[in-house]
Protein 1
Amino acid sequence: MIPRIATLLALTAGAPAFAADSVVIGRGISNSFLSKVDCPAGSPCLDAQYLWVLTSNRTVAGPSVEGQIRAIAIQHTDATQQFVTSVELFALRPIESATIRTTSGADFYIVALSPLDSAGRYCLSVDPATVGLHLDATKVRADQGTYCFDARSL
């Protein structure tokens, strides 16, 4: 299940971070197509924006975000409902553009997300420190672009 995270989600790494990211524990509710993304010819690209609806029960890093949230993720394809509802950890970046917020109905981009794996870990496609999670570096396992850590550390 964890490798699927990398194929479903693209980090908005090239975008400047104007406001602080928030990392929340909650649950995915739905995932639906929003729009196509233009990709340069011949380059690998996640080619569509999807609108996620999720609930945030607790903020573990960054500004507090609670309740039902609408957020944009860049993906190849729809996430299955089973995957959507399995996701518990979301790293959210505020959308600075009022136009994008209005046209999409979303207030955040999803920077990274993770279900809880069978070993009781969350695994993100970004270094947890880059989204404001201050974890003991010796307890974060980095492997091929995925960073896993014990969920109890949150």
Protein 2
Amino acid sequence: MTRKMKVYVVGHSGPEHNSIQSVHRTYKGAFKSWDKLRVELLQNAKYFLKRAAHNKEMWQRIVKNLSCKDPEKINNSPHDTPYIREWKVEE
């Protein structure tokens, strides 16, 4: 007998990649993981902004985009964008 269940997948995608970081049974757990990932990406962007000789505008835009705390509204395309996706799976 198979059991259908809902899981929440946390990852980040960009123009040439899609990286799954974790899978959660609850949205609350997924949100915590998503926010941690968002903050890591944000810290990396701030690091590169401080050291940017060129493309400062791009790094400023990335920092602004990754500062969004709503997984439904965040948009950092075409750069790394963290996400939460709901998947239905069979066990």
Protein 3
Amino acid sequence: MKSKLPERLKEVRTEAGISQAKLADKLNVSNSFIAEIEMDRSSVSTELLIALSEFFNVSSDYLLGLSDKKS
């Protein structure tokens, strides 16, 4: 099963009007790492998934594509 995280992350990031660089800075990761996640070339740790969920105020299930409810 293909992960929905790349498309969901890009969706919530663009809806929030935040660039990959700004998100990377807020989460203390590299800009290229955020780009790699969005291109489905890198996976995320549990800790980063939680940080993304908290930052965008959405559930981790939403980011992973397990639910269509954002919260």
